[in-house]
Design goal:
Length: 392
């Protein structure tokens, strides 16, 4: 039989242990990870995304720190204090210890910055950010392997990026333009010129040389277009406005590389579709365009066996308003939504990986429940492209 004094001692010891454990649980450091809620299920049985309940420091909302402005140019990048959803953003490195994400444009960090000497919390997400295609990164001599294992996420235009930052999206265009029959009537009535192209770099990549060759072949075939920028006799001291481009029936959305995955830039979205001109597209793969663009909104150069055939078709459309108008059917329905267009695209192209809305960096931070490491930046950004993206 246990003596009474021993029993009292063991009871007191157990109480002390329980008290210590409870005290430790209640005094978790603010920088530590708070346990996640149990996984919730949606009606279809899939896991419901949950908001992660931890923040860095004493902040009430997550902070995104941009390490510097792209190319170290003051006019580049977002404005100080720009909100991303509920998240705050800053360029103030004095707030590094508060930041949940630290974003590095590819031009503001180099191998000389490694090994990393600044503060880094294991709960922070370090993000590699670039909007450039592989051809330009190759031209700039960006050393991707030097950062293997350094970053947690990539933020690019690619569909397989951790944070997808597209140049444009079907839904955004549908929400930005005026829709309806009268709207299309007005757009077409404003046309006074045939085709335009704005380009400032004539031969900096193999793709740039090829697009210049294509433009020259179109002109030789009899297609008259107005070229703006350093490659033509109409240099620009400012960008053309949307209203100026809207006077042209067609806009040459020619990229600086061929078939680079998901590389569809402002040439297609802003310069053409938003301006009310029909984009004539060279560079992207057709399937990449079909998955993300409004239906029947563009003319694909590779659908034609020669520049002469393409030129003939564009001049035919110039004389035939009924056929030309078909490229605006996507905005004639004033009730057209992204959801409806997604379904129509799936019906016409079964099996196509149709693009849908994606989370921004703030939403991604709020739902992130794992610590990821980008072990090969080159593999994620560079290698997943066809060979013609680099060599033509």
């Amino acid at each position: 039989m246990v003596p009474k004094t021993v029993f009292l001692f063991l009871t007191l010891l157990s109480a002390i242990v329980v008290f210590c454990l409870l005290f430790f649980h209640l005094s978790v450091d603010q920088d530590e990870l708070v346990p996640l809620k149990p996984v919730e299920k949606t009606k279809d049985g899939s896991e419901k995304k949950q908001q992660v309940d931890f923040l860095i420091g004493n902040r009430s909302v997550p902070l995104i720190l941009f390490w510097n402005r792209p190319w170290f140019v003051e006019s580049e990048g977002v404005s100080e204090g720009t909100k991303f959803g509920i998240c705050d953003s800053t360029y103030d490195r004095g707030k590094l210890m508060e930041a949940k994400a630290v974003v590095f444009h590819h031009t503001v960090i180099s191998p000389d910055d490694l090994p990393w000497q600044d503060y880094r919390n294991p709960e922070q997400v370090f993000v590699w950010w670039s909007a450039e295609g592989p051809a330009v990164l190759q031209l700039e001599g960006v050393n991707l392997p030097a950062f293997d294992g350094f970053f947690n996420w990539t933020m690019t235009y690619r569909r397989d990026a951790d944070v997808i930052q597209r140049y444009g999206y079907r839904g955004d265009i549908l929400n930005s333009v005026t829709k309806g029959k009268k709207a299309v009537d007005d757009v077409i009535a404003a046309k006074t010129f045939l085709a335009a192209w704005i380009v400032g770099k004539c031969d900096h990549t193999p793709g740039a040389k090829m697009r210049m060759k294509l433009a020259n072949e179109l002109k030789k075939a009899g297609l008259e277009f107005t070229g703006y920028g350093n490659c033509f006799d109409h240099p620009l001291d400012r960008g053309l406005t949307i209203s100026e481009v809207s006077k042209y029936k067609f806009y040459f959305a020619f990229e600086n590389a061929l078939h680079c995955t998901d590389y569809i830039t402002e040439k297609f979205w802003r310069n053409a579709l938003l301006s009310g001109s029909v984009p004539v597209v060279w560079g992207p793969r057709k399937q990449d365009l079909l998955r993300i663009a409004p239906l029947d909104s563009f003319i694909f150069v590779e659908d034609f066996e020669s520049a002469e055939k393409l030129s003939e078709y564009l001049m035919f459309l110039d004389k035939n308003e009924t056929e030309y108008r078909k490229y605006f059917r996507w905005r004639e329905d004033e009730n057209m939504t992204d959801e409806k267009m997604i379904e129509l695209t799936k019906q016409r192209y079964p099996g196509l990986d149709v693009a849908v809305p994606v989370e921004g960096i703030c939403e991604k931070l709020l739902t992130n429940i794992e610590t990821k490491v980008v072990y090969s930046l080159k593999s994620d950004v560079w290698d997943r492209n066809p060979i013609e993206c680099f060599d033509i």
